[in-house]
Structure formats: structure tokens, C-alpha cells
Amino acid sequence: MRACDALGLSRATAYRHLRPRAQRRAKRKARRSHRRIPDSDRAEILTVLDSERFMDQPPREVYAALLSEGRYLCSWSSMYRILRERAPVLERRNQRQPTHFSVPRLVATAPNVVWTWDISKLATHERGSFLSLYVVLDLFSRYVVAWMVAARENSALAKQLLSEAVGRHDVEPGQLIVHQDRGAPMTSHGFQDLLAELGVDRSYSRPRVSNDNPFSESHFRTAKYQPDYPGRFADIAHARRWCDEFFRWYNAYHHHTGLALFTPHQVFFGQVEAVAEARQHALTRAYRDNPERFVAGPPRVKLPPDRVCINPVDPEQPTAQRVLELTDEQLAELWPAQIDAPIVINVPAQPATEAST
């Protein structure tokens, strides 16, 4: 008692800590209520719950059905308790299995390899009335290969736009991947059948993942943040006139930061080398005239990236091939808690494709 007072503990707490855990558990098991349903009745209840008639019904339904027939086994809470003692209680009805969507990973190393497209709304002066802007973007060059302003959003217009774009740019079957989100025009059977007829592979963003189509989203932001963007359009003719001027400027004159300040037109049509040579001559002359302004030495023209990716693989992420090349010490750093257990890695026989559809 004096020790408990000195430590500030009650006697019950002290006894609970002094008594071995196994004895406490055995004592708890021994304390059974006199109202507990006998084991024979519990077995009968489980048999009824597992019967073909009630196997997919919740205990509340089973209780009500049996009670209406003049039969009482136990309360529905007791049914839940008996089921819980046997195993965790889960949904007894048939449930749709969760769908897992793979991460889209796309790599474009040249024009007309990957296109990404989306639809954005354009507000009008009429409250609640919007126009639909369809834009198809080449991933490698950011070149707008096709666009359309329409009064509505549907798969028929999307089919018309994509088919004309594929024909205009002479895309061969099996050459192109079209990436899009999961809107109704993109997932319609007619649109998917059209892509199959054209020999175009398709890739989709994951549901509710906005950054799986970042290039199209970024392009719409560039358009709507232009100084001359009207905000609201008078009619569809007004929207088409503004978009026509914008896309001409964007393709031919917009020096894209993601393209090392080259224009989408220059990258799409292979004019980078000629323009880079002219830029390099200008930098060389500037360095020759004022070398003190270039503290890092002779300047070099930056070129656009030779590969553009959507969801690129993290080089630091331990892939199967990289894990096979690691030493035991490196494995211990990656998985310190599992170093004593064997690590089993299933290496696929064929390498994974760059694009995930």
C-alpha cells in the first residue's frame, strides 16, 4: 500500500501489472456470463446463418424472417457476436470487386508518337451556357495537331476530330498512342472502335487523378491566362475567331519553356538544329565581345528534351532489375526490418512496355 502511494498507483493497477498476462487472459476466459448461449445452440445458429437460404443475408434479415415464421433463435446482435467469434464479420452479400487501374507511363521520343487530348469549357455571356473546346496536343513538341470549338461535348465530334487529325498528319497504324482522361466522349464504344480501326493505341488517366494528363491541363491554363482572353464569349463564332488566332500564335511564335524556348512548330517539323545554330552564333559573338559577362565560360544553346514522359519512373525506386544488382548491405538499407527474411522477386520474362493503357 505504501509503495503504491509512493508511485501514485492504485492497488488494482499494481496487481494487474504484477499478475502474468497469461493468468489474466485465462481468468477473463473463465468469466462467462450465465446468460451465454450454449454451444449446441450456437452451432445451430451458425448452421442457419450458413444455410443456402440465409448465406447472403445480414443477421437482421435472418432474425426478421425467422421471427415471422414463429421461430426465435436469438437476437440479431447475438448473431453478429457469434459470427464475429468465428471470423471477422464481412459483407455477406455479393460485392463488386474493387478495380485497380495501372499508372499510365508514356514516353515520346519523336513527334506523332504520343498525342494527349482533352475538352475544356468556355464560358459565354449567357448564364449557365458553355462551349466545348477540343484540343489534341502532340506530347513531344506540344504542337496542337487539331482543335475544335463546339456547342456540345459528345463522342461523335471527338471521332470526327481525331480521324481528321490522323489523316492530316499521315499517321501509320501502330505508330501512335492517344492519351486521355475517362470522360464520356473518351470512353464511348464508338470512339474506342474508331481508334481500333485507325490502328491507334489508347491510354487513360486513372479515375480522380488530375495529374495523369498534365500537358493538356497546362495547355488550357496557358490559353485561359492569355492577356487578351475575353473570359466570356459572345457566341461560338467569337470563340472560334479567338481560338484561331491563339493557336496560330501558340504553334508558331510561343517560345515554350518546356522546349528550351523553341516553338512547338520548330520541334514538330524538325527545325531545331537550324534555329539552334543561329542562336549559337549569336551567343558566340556575345561571348567574344564581352567574355566577362559569362562567368561560367562560353555559353551553349540549350536544346529541347529528347524524351518527354507522363509519370516517368523514379530512378531511385528499387525495381526488380536494380534489386538483383544490389549487395546485401544495400538491401539492408532498403529493407532493414526484413533483412532476416528471404526476399523473393518475380522478374517478368518480357520487359514492360513504355505505355500503359
If you had to describe this structure to a student in words, what would you say it looks like?
With about 350 residues, this protein is of the alpha/beta class. It has four domains: about 1-30, no CATH class; about 35-90; about 110-260, Ribonuclease H-like superfamily/Ribonuclease H (Nucleotidyltransferase, domain 5, 2-Layer Sandwich), CATH 3.30.420.10; about 315-355, no CATH class. About 40% of the residues lie in helices and about 10% in strands. The chain has helices spanning about 1-5, 10-20, 20-30, 40-50, 60-70, 75-85, 155-170, 185, 190-200, 215-225, 235-255, 265-270, 270-290, 320-325, 330-335; strands at about 105-110, 115-125, 130-140, 145-150, 175-180, 200-205, 310. The strands form two sheets. The chain has a five-stranded mixed sheet, with helices on both faces. Strands 1-7 form a two-stranded antiparallel sheet. The longest helix has 18 residues, at about 235-255. The radius of gyration is 34 Å and the shape is elongated.
User: Roughly what fraction of the amino acids lie in strands?
Assistant: 5-15%
Q: Tell me which CATH architecture of the largest domain applies here.
A: 2-Layer Sandwich
Low-confidence stretches: 320-324, 334-357
- Widest β-sheet, arrangement of strands: 4-3-2-5-6
The CATH homology group name of the largest domain: Ribonuclease H-like superfamily/Ribonuclease H
What would you call the structural class? alpha/beta
Taking the sheet with the most strands, its summary is: 5 strands, mixed
CATH fold naming of the largest domain: Nucleotidyltransferase, domain 5
Number of helices: 15
Number of domains: 4
Question: Under the CATH scheme, which class of the largest domain?
Answer: Alpha Beta
Q: What does the overall shape look like?
A: elongated
Helix content: 40-55%
End-to-end C-alpha gap? 72 Å
Mean pLDDT rating: 85
Q: What is the gyration radius calculated from CA atoms?
A: 34 Å
> What is the H/E order?
HHHHHHEEEEHEHHEHHHHEHH
